[in-house]
Design brief:
Elements (H helix, E strand, L loop, with lengths): L2 H7 L11 H10 L5 H14 L1 H10 L5 H14 L5 H7 L5 H14 L4 H10 L4 H31 L3 H14 L1 H8 L7
């Protein structure tokens, strides 16, 4: 484990939930480095920290620096913490294709926890081509994992002739389906 991650792990995290936040912020700052190796090591340290790094990584998704956003999206996709779903959905509209792709892959990894924030975003921002493209990729991947019944109409709307009109309605209908609501309440992950 990299030295910075060991320092944070050994901090007083049991009594202070924000313990080590200065170290986490130092690792986040290292994501802006011009040195690719330094960025890589900082990201690995943040991934090794896991949940304690998630909040700062979500904030880093809004950083003006593309390297920082890319590394943050990559780290969040590797950590797979369900609290990052909404931030990753927002990153589906990042100007950088690489960041959008990493966010989509991270959301695929979050499986069912992706659906509420993704469907809410589609309901409100269906005019975003990047959001629709990312959502279509995610829903195709999730369909391979057994969510096809619930998401079929949303996929059809995304692929339809007038997605800006059809997608918000399909997303709202999907959010209101009792079967999907039960599945989202069930915390046990379905096997792939």
């Amino acid at each position: 484990m990299p030295k910075a991650a060991r320092r944070v792990k050994s901090s007083n995290a049991a009594t202070d939930p924000v313990a080590g936040s200065a170290d986490v912020r130092a690792l986040i700052a290292a994501l802006a480095s011009d040195d690719g190796s330094a960025r890589h090591h900082a990201r690995e340290s943040l991934v090794a920290l896991g949940k304690p790094a998630v909040r700062c990584l979500m904030e880093a998704l809004r950083d003006p620096g593309e390297h920082v956003r890319w590394e943050a999206a990559k780290a969040l996709s590797e950590i797979r913490d369900k609290t990052s779903a909404a931030a990753l959905v927002t990153a589906l509209e990042d100007p950088s294709f690489g960041i959008r792709w990493l966010a989509a892959e991270g959301l695929v990894g979050l499986r069912k926890y992706t659906l509420p924030p993704l469907l809410r975003a589609l309901e409100k921002r269906a005019d975003s081509i990047w959001l629709r493209e990312g959502a279509l990729h995610i829903l195709h991947q999730l369909a391979k994992r057994g969510l096809n019944d619930e998401m079929g109409p949303v996929v059809a709307a995304l692929e339809g002739p007038v997605p800006t009109l059809e997608v918000p309605l399909a997303a709202r209908d999907a959010l209101e389906k009792p079967r999907l609501a039960r599945r989202l309440r069930d915390n046990s992950p379905k096997s792939p």
